[in-house]
Amino acid sequence: MPHSQDTTPIVLTIAGSDSGGGAGIQADIKAISATGSYACSVITAITSQNTLGVSAIHPVPLKHIESQLDAVFTDLNIIAVKVGMLADSDIIKVVADKIRQYQPKHLVVDPVMVATSGDLLLKRNAIDTLKRELLPLADLVTPNLPEGAALTGGDVPHDEDQMGAMIESLRALGAKAVLLKGGHLEQSDNSNDLLITPSASELIRAKRVMTGNTHGTGCTLSSAIASYLAHGNRLHKAVCLGKQYMTQAISHADELDIGAGHGPVHHFFCGFTNVR
Fold first, then answer.
1. Residue 3 pLDDT > 70, yes or no?
2. Of the residues 135, 153, 213, 215, which has the maximum number of CB atoms within 10 A of its CB?
C-alpha cells in the first residue's frame, strides 16, 4: 500500500559529500526530494570532487558522525535510511551500531567502493567489516558489477549469464535482497539489473541510454528506492519505480551542461514527482 499519512515521509541519507554536487549526499538529497520525500543527512566524509574525479577525501571524526546520527534519529520520524560512502571500518561500525539502536523500518545500502571516475572510495580492508556489520541489517544492497565481485570474491561479470552465476554468493551476504546493477555491461543495448531475493531472482529491464553523463547514478538509484519504500511501497515496486526514475534522470542528463568530465544525471527532469 502507498504511504497513506498526510505527512511527507522522511528519508535519511548517510554518505559522503561530493563538492561537485553530482553524487554522494548532494545527489541523494536531490533524488529523495524529487521522488516526494523529505531528506535529512549525516555526512561521513568530505570529498574534494568534481566531474573529473576525486582529489581528496577527509573522513568526518567518529564522534561527530555519532552525534549527527543521534540528532536526527531522536527528533525526526525517519522511515527509511540509505547508506552510501562510509570510507573506513570504524565509520561502518558506528553506523551499524546506530542502525541497530534506532531500527529504522527500511535500510538500503549502496556499497560505495569506487567512483565513476575510478577513484577508490572505500579502504580495501573495510570490505570485510561492511559484510559483517552492515549488510546483514539491510533490506536491500545495491552493488554494481565491480562492487558485487569485491563483495563475493569473484570475477567481475561480463554478461547477464555471469551475473546470474553470482546469485548464491550475493544471497550469502545476508541482506534481505540484493539489486545487482548491470550498467557496466556497456556492450549491451539494455541496462538491466538483477533483483535477488531469498526465493527468486528477476531482471529489472531498461533500455540503455547513450550518454557520458552518469555521475552519481548509484547514489541516485539507491536513494530513490529508499524514498519509494518510505512511501509504503513493497520492495519490488520500489525497485521498479526507482529504476524508472533513474532511467528518466539519465535520459535527460544531456540537457544539463555541468563540468568537463562525467556530468550528473538530471534529478529534476520533470519538476517534483509526487508519488502519493
1. no
2. 215
How many other CB atoms sit within 10 Å of the CB of residue 16?
A: 28
For residue 142, count CB atoms less than 10 angstroms from its CB and return exposed for 0-12, middle for 13-18, buried for 19 or more: buried
By mean pLDDT, which of 36-40, 121-125, 131-135, 260-264 is the weakest? Answer: 121-125
Angle of helix 235-251 relative to helix 24-34, nearest 10 degrees, comes to: 110
List the catalytic residue out of 13, 214, 220, 247. 214
Please give the average per-residue pLDDT across 21-34, as a whole number: 97
The answer to whether 271 is a known catalytic residue is no
To the query of whether residue 53 is one of the catalytic residues in this protein, the response is no
Is 153 a residue of the active site? Answer: no
Q: Is the pLDDT of residue 24 over 60?
A: yes
Q: For residues 230 and 106, what is the distance between their CA atoms, to the nearest angstrom?
A: 7
Q: Is 219 a catalytic residue?
A: yes
Mean pLDDT of 137-156: 93
What does the pLDDT look like over 170-206, one tens digit per residue?
999 999 999 999 876 767 778 899 999 999 999 998 8
Q: Where are the beta strands (DSSP E) in 51-113?
A: 53-59, 78-83, 106-109
> Domains of the chain (ranges plus CATH)?
10-143+212-236+246-255 (3.40.1190.20)
Is 13 among the residues known to form the active site?
no
Active-site option among 16, 216, 232, 263: 216
C-alpha cell at 211: 550518454
Nearest to 52 by CA among 93, 95, 23, 26: 23
Can you give the pTM of this predicted structure?
0.93
* One-character DSSP codes across 141-182: E--BHHHHHHHHT-PPPSSHHHHHTTHHHHHTT--S-EEEE-
| Active-site hit among 44, 181, 232, 263 | 181
